[in-house]
Design goal:
Elements lengths: L1 E3 L4 E3 L5 E5 L15 E2 L6 H7 L16 H4 L2 E8 L3 H5 L2 E6 L5 E6 L2 E6 L6 E4 L9 E8 L1 H12 L38 E6 L1 E12 L5 E12 L6 E7 L5 E8 L3 E8 L15 E9 L2 E10 L4 E4 L12 E4 L2 E3 L1 E6 L11 H13 L4 E4 L8 H10 L2 E5 L11 H18 L5 E5 L4 H7 L15 H15 L5 E2 L17 E2 L22 E3 L8 H7 L10 H5 L12 H12 L6 H24 L12 E4 L22 H9 L3 E8 L2 E8 L5 E11 L4 E11 L4 E4 L10 E9 L2 E8 L14 E6 L2 E6 L3 E7 L10 E3 L4 E5 L10 E3 L6 E2 L11 E2 L1
Parallel strand pairs: 22-23, 22-29, 23-24, 24-25, 25-26, 27-28, 37-44
Antiparallel strand pairs: 1-18, 2-11, 3-4, 3-5, 5-10, 6-9, 6-11, 7-8, 7-10, 12-13, 13-16, 14-15, 14-17, 17-18, 19-20, 20-21, 30-31, 31-34, 32-33, 32-35, 35-36, 37-38, 38-41, 39-40, 39-42, 42-43
Helix pairs in contact: 5-6, 7-9, 13-14
Length: 842
């Protein structure tokens, strides 16, 4: 968290209007309003038009197609305001524009004071010579990005891209706004960040606070560098204070504002740890610019004391090197997720929504969040939450799936953008990697411009990824490592022995079976995934009842997956993976349930393959696995594991189990089982393993218990060589400490479509918010659908006779609950009082 005292920093957020503007030689679109509208600042035109009922919701049905005119129209924002006498009397008066989306000409009283073409660059403009007493008029004229991008494309040449209009690579706008393979095309326009007027005598222009920890972890140093701006006086001071996590003052000093550099010693620091590895202790540093007894400005930041290293070391018995994040001397298996923006209308995303989504990731035993390079540098509240929750942040710079240019004006803009992003985010303990781009090395290889046999002279963006960006990080945030691109590191981007890898052999490329994830590993697997629909509740938010079948136009429109030629292919690929596991679904509800179960099984396969290769010190075969993707930006069928309503999919619960601090994992080959315990605990544990085997009808055929010493922060193999489990039986492996179950792995016959899975006969009872579920036979994939509520646990594999109690997140009518399982065990309100053996909800 960064807190800056407001002083004379006054928001200019009320009283704005916005109006469509004719472009030279072009009439206004017939849909465009002819009169000025009340405008929301910060905000976007789409947001205002939607709120005032002038466009349909672009997320419903096919409405996306009806609103494209908005992004192809010029818009002018206007504000009349009166500066106060104090503002007019101040020695310095600046207009601060924290984010303009995207091509904006700013004029004050008819005089142009700024032209901006980068959505991610904040601006500060001295307006002392332009402002006047009385009414002043501020205008922001936004031009559409497509004509501008096409003009640059005509000048510099068309470039290869995956996703969106190819001209996007010339425009520094959030790339996903051009449309992606999981989201719609909405070319937003407007002042999407704060606009403020700052009157001051002197201010803190740049503040660097680096809390570094010694290799021995017994000492930390706070380095503070401050640049002051304005009119300084000889006696101006910067007072620096560091408060410990418990609030006591740990260190304090002052220094002349003209040469503000100091270091403070912090003996025996309280360390900040990734989640599950320790506590998230946060210090508070304050920097105060004082003139006598007057406080001119006050900056407050929370800092974590942590030692960070990206280890690329030999892997015993294998070629290549590891790719392991080491925090406070401890190697961390970075299990986690990729993050995309939560919405296309970014101003609708509240701090509470950010916190909620990140808490879901943390509750899902995830350790790392990768902020993907086609979105935005997220707001401070995002990184504050990651600091609080112990979520490591892999931060991409904002280049994705394209051959970006490197002509001088573009490089200048990129440098300004990168410096702003690094300066704003560098104090966060959670930020552990800066990465140059997403898949740009891959696309360069695909056109013969890089990689084996490639012509690197055609890959001019290397000037960005291998020169400009590392220079910025080294200068401004040398405590955090830089990585040129994801994936990269070896002789080519698909090298599985060096650096990070995107594993899309499953789903994309050759559509390999998800059980084969282990064949496509990397030292750090930073992307992989498989699609599924959102929840039935979420589907109902964007569709009519007649649209709710697997191949309706609306349902397919909300799946943006495409083949390399840009043709929709998501439903076709989903059908292949569905048919690998199930017979054709009898109903749309069955289809949704079954395809979501397939995604969940794919995640089990992937995380067992990758976390099972964590190994031990000196033999870290795979050091991280980040699923594509955590969240959705609109209601859709996608790779997300949490839909846009905030409802976890079955895959979320599968990943949560596979990333438990102590987890038993297993796989089967014919009648043979192999299993292991993987630990992220920092001490050994003696645990009990229980193996129970059942026929699908419920008869138990084996029960075997034994103990194991699970090695700290390592994988411990289990000896099951003497155990033979017929391929048509179900094996449950469970891990216990005392009588408390820590983890379970259920191995079912594969594929299930080749086996007669009987109805498990579920008995379900709702008592307030407590839902109890009991099964007669082995139950596969027990899923609780409870409208917009989130059960405390879900997607359950249950033993015969087992009873579980799940807590719902709110009150609900029993008619809004449906519980499903493989084999036809569907428990809904209309099942009450059914025939013999019918499932019941009471």
């Amino acid at each position: 968290m960064t807190h800056v005292s407001p002083g004379h920093l006054v928001p200019l957020h009320t009283g704005w209007t916005v109006q469509a503007v004719s472009q030279v030689g072009q009439p206004l679109p017939h849909q465009a309003p002819r009169m000025p509208l009340a405008a929301t600042v910060p905000g976007t035109v789409h947001q205002d038009l939607l709120q005032q009922g002038l466009i349909p919701d672009p997320y419903l049905g096919l409405n996306e197609l009806e609103v494209q005119w908005v992004g192809n129209t010029a818009w002018r924002y206007t504000l009349d305001f009166k500066p106060t006498p104090d503002q007019l009397a101040a020695p310095h008066l600046d207009l601060c524009l924290d984010g303009l989306d995207t091509l904006c000409t700013v004029a004050l009283n008819g005089q142009v004071i700024l032209r901006s073409d980068n959505m991610f660059v904040p601006w500060r403009v001295d307006v002392r010579g332009h402002i006047r007493p009385g009414t002043n008029t501020l205008t922001l004229h936004f031009d559409p990005v497509l004509p501008h991008g096409h003009a640059l494309e005509a000048e510099h040449g068309r470039r290869a891209v995956w996703n969106g209009d190819a001209s996007r690579v010339y425009v520094r706008k959030a790339q996903y706004h051009y449309g992606w393979d999981w989201g719609p095309t909405l070319l937003t326009v407007g002042p999407w960040q704060d606009i403020r007027l700052h009157a001051y005598a002197a201010r803190l222009d740049g503040v660097r606070t680096a809390l570094t920890v010694s290799d021995t972890l017994d000492h930390a140093t706070l380095t503070v560098d401050v640049t002051a701006a304005g009119t300084l006086e000889a006696d101006d001071l910067v007072v620096v204070e560091l408060r410990a996590p418990d609030g006591r003052v740990a260190a304090r000093t002052s220094m002349p504002a003209q040469s503000a550099h100091t270091t403070l010693d912090v003996p025996s620091p309280e360390l900040w740890w990734p989640r599950t590895y320790g506590a998230q202790r946060l210090y508070t540093a304050t920097m105060t610019l004082e003139r006598g007894r007057t406080v001119l400005e006050h900056v407050e930041r929370r800092l974590g004391a942590r030692h960070l290293r990206l280890a690329q070391e030999p892997v015993a018995g294998e070629s290549g090197t590891s790719f392991t994040f080491v925090v406070n001397g401890v190697p961390v298996f970075a299990g986690g997720v990729n993050w995309i923006p939560e919405d296309l209308l970014l101003n609708r995303v509240t701090p509470a929504q950010y916190r909620d989504r990140l808490e879901q990731a943390a509750d899902g035993n995830m350790v790392m969040i990768r902020v993907w390079g086609g979105g935005i540098y997220e707001p401070d509240t995002f990184y504050d939450s990651c600091d609080d929750l112990g979520l490591l942040v892999w931060q991409d710079f904002l280049f994705g799936c394209g051959m970006y240019p490197a002509h001088p004006p573009f490089l200048d803009s990129v440098r300004r953008e990168a410096e702003a992003a690094v300066t704003r985010l560098r104090h966060h303990a959670s930020v552990v990697l800066w990465c140059g781009n997403n898949e740009d090395y891959q696309i360069a290889e695909s056109v013969g411009a890089s990689g084996p046999g490639g012509d690197t002279s055609k890959f001019d963006a290397l000037a960005i990824y291998e020169h400009l960006l590392p220079e910025v990080v080294l200068a401004l945030n040398p405590e955090v490592p830089y990585w040129p691109g994801s994936p990269s590191g070896g002789v080519a981007s698909h090298d599985h022995t060096v650096g990070d890898k995107h594993t899309w052999e499953v789903w994309h490329v050759n559509m390999a079976p998800h059980r084969d994830y282990g064949l496509y590993e990397g030292r750090f697997v930073s992307e992989f995934g498989l699609q599924s629909p959102s929840s039935m509740y979420n589907i109902a938010t964007y569709s009519r009842p007649e649209d709710r079948h697997a191949h309706s136009r609306v349902f397919e429109h909300h799946n943006k997956a495409k083949d390399p030629q840009g043709r929709p292919d998501g439903q076709r690929r989903l059908a292949v993976y569905h048919s690998d596991a199930f017979h054709p679904a009898a109903t749309f509800e069955d289809y949704v349930y079954q395809t979501r179960l397939v995604q969940a099984e794919a995640m089990v396969s992937a995380y067992r393959a990758y976390r099972g290769r964590w190994g031990q010190d000196g033999a870290r075969g795979v050091s991280g696995a980040l699923v594509w993707q955590l969240n959705d930006c609109w209601p859709a069928t996608s790779w997300a594991i949490i839909d846009s309503s905030g409802l976890p999919k079955p895959a979320y619960h599968s990943i949560k189990r596979e990333l438990a601090p102590l987890a038993v994992q297993a796989r089967r080959s014919g009648d043979t089982l192999s299993a292991w315990v993987v630990s992220s605990e920092l001490q050994d544990h003696v645990l009990e393993v229980r193996l129970d085997v059942y026929r699908l009808g419920g008869e138990q055929v084996m029960a075997h218990h034994f103990t194991v010493r699970a090695a700290a922060n390592a994988v411990t193999l289990l000896d099951l060589a003497a155990m033979s489990v017929p391929a048509d039986q179900v094996a449950f492996l469970r891990l216990f400490t005392a009588d408390h179950e820590l983890s379970r792995a259920a191995l079912w016959p594969e594929p299930l479509k080749h086996h007669e899975v009987p109805d498990p006969v579920l008995w379900v009872r709702l008592d307030g918010r407590r839902l109890s579920i009991e099964t007669t036979r082995p139950a596969r994939g027990v899923w609780i659908e409870a409208a917009a509520l989130r059960p405390s646990d879900n997607h359950l594999d249950l033993l015969p006779g087992e009873r579980v109690i799940v807590t719902l997140s709110g009150d609900i009518d029993p008619t809004d609950i449906c519980v499903r399982a493989v084999g036809g065990g569907v428990v809904c309100a209309d099942a009450v009082g059914g025939g013999t053996g019918a499932p019941r909800l009471t």
